[in-house]
């Protein structure tokens, strides 16, 4: 199976790249290991209720990203959420809470945004790419099921550590690739252990939408997720662990770190928070990249046979988080589209 460009990863960066390629007339396919698009822009349904268990809300600085966010229907958006914020100085991106900053939550969950980006794209879900190889002037993505996807350009848009595991065996011997690979190796990835806790609606109503408790030792964020839902059946808190705690407990049994985070929630909010009616947990092994560790732009390499290999994502940007990921994807798509046009590989959008 062949396209001009093969994009691995249907998070915001990969989808933004594929969408911009399509807009510029470059055929592309997006391969995604998971059952849905979005990566950390993730929503799951628990006990019949949507829950955002990665990114809690959407916000923008640039007009370009803001315009993309506002493709979501106005009826779905909750302008200004979170309205009640505590401990914003401890947030990963404190600037998101500044007065006048464009931000909102989504009634049906933040995954509505990547689903909007994916509209009209050729996205193949459940494709686990396990290796890359060169084939003449093409690069090939090999799936665990034996399928092979060929393209003149191959874009890897996974978490930075996952991207490195894919590209390093292929590109380590390429001229000029050593320095680029070393830059990627130097980027530390912050894990985030996450607990979704559901309570009967009659329990205490926490007086915040998001809290970054400075007094906590294990909890980094408590998101009052049910305040984003219309007529919620459950009061839902999403608890995210601090990077140090998450790193130290990443391989521990799920039940143990879940109990620890719930215990600290009980210390902060009252013992009721330690005893949810139901609970689900999730390990974000590659939760985020800190602003100080961003590389500033995507990595672009040329194979000996002339094919192009690119790496994009939130680590390869000047801005952290979803906005950086989106802009990284668009910028790389622009470079690829220009090169494809010179080679006669781009047509009408």
Can you offer a commentary on this structure?
The chain is an alpha/beta fold and 349 residues long. The protein folds into two domains: 2-38 and 115-188 and 292-342, FAD/NAD(P)-binding domain (3-Layer(bba) Sandwich), CATH 3.50.50; 43-110 and 190-288, Alpha-Beta Complex (Polyamine Oxidase, Chain A, domain 2). Helix content is 26%, strand content 29%. It is built from eight helices and 19 strands. It has helices at residues 12-23, 63-69, 112-118, 160-171, 177-185, 243-249, 254-269, 321-342, and strands at residues 2-8, 28-32, 43-46, 49-52, 58-60, 77-79, 85-86, 102-106, 123-125, 129-135, 138-143, 148-156, 190-199, 210-211, 219-224, 235-241, 278-288, 299-302, 308-311. The strands form four sheets. Strands 1, 2, 9, 10, 11, 12, 18 and 19 form an eight-stranded mixed sheet that branches. It has a six-stranded mixed sheet with strand order 7-14-15-16-13-17, with helices on one face. Strand 3 (43-46) and strand 4 form a beta hairpin. Helix 1 (12-23) runs parallel beside helix 8 and helix 4 (160-171) packs antiparallel against helix 5. It starts with a strand and ends in a 7-residue tail after the last helix.
């Amino acid at each position: 199976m062949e396209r001009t460009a093969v994009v691995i990863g249907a998070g915001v960066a990969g989808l933004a790249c594929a969408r911009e390629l399509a807009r510029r007339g470059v055929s592309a396919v997006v391969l995604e290991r998971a059952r849905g698009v979005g990566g950390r822009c993730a929503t799951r349904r628990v006990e019949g209720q949507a829950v955002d268990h990665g990114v809690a809300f959407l916000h923008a600085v640039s007009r370009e990203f803001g315009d993309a966010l506002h493709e979501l229907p106005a009826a779905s958006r909750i302008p200004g959420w979170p309205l009640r914020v505590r401990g914003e100085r401890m947030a990963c991106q404190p600037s998101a809470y500044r007065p006048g900053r464009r931000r909102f939550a989504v009634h049906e969950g933040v995954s509505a945004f990547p689903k909007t980006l994916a509209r009209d794209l050729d996205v193949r879900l459940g494709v686990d790419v396990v290796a890359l190889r060169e084939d003449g002037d093409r690069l090939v993505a090999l799936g665990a099921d034996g399928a092979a996807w060929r393209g003149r350009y191959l874009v890897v848009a996974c978490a930075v550590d996952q991207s490195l595991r894919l590209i390093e065996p292929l590109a380590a011997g390429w001229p000029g690739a050593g320095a680029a690979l070393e830059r990627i190796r130097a980027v530390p990835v912050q894990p985030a252990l996450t607990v979704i806790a559901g309570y009967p609606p009659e329990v205490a109503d926490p007086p915040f939408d998001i809290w970054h408790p400075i007094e906590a030792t294990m909890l980094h964020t408590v998101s009052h997720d049910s305040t984003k839902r219309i007529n919620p059946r459950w009061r839902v808190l999403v608890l995210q662990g601090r990077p140090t705690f998450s790193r130290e407990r990443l391989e521990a049994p799920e039940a143990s770190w879940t109990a620890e985070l719930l215990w600290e929630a009980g210390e902060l909010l009252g013992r009721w928070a330690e005893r949810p009616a139901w609970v689900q947990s999730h390990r974000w092994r590659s939760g985020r990249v800190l602003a100080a560790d961003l590389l500033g732009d995507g990595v672009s390499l040329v194979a000996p046979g002339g094919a192009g290999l690119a790496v994009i994502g939130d680590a390869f940007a000047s801005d952290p988080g979803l906005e950086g990921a989106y802009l990284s994807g668009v910028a790389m798509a622009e470079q690829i589209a220009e090169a494809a046009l010179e080679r006669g590989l781009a047509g009408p959008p």
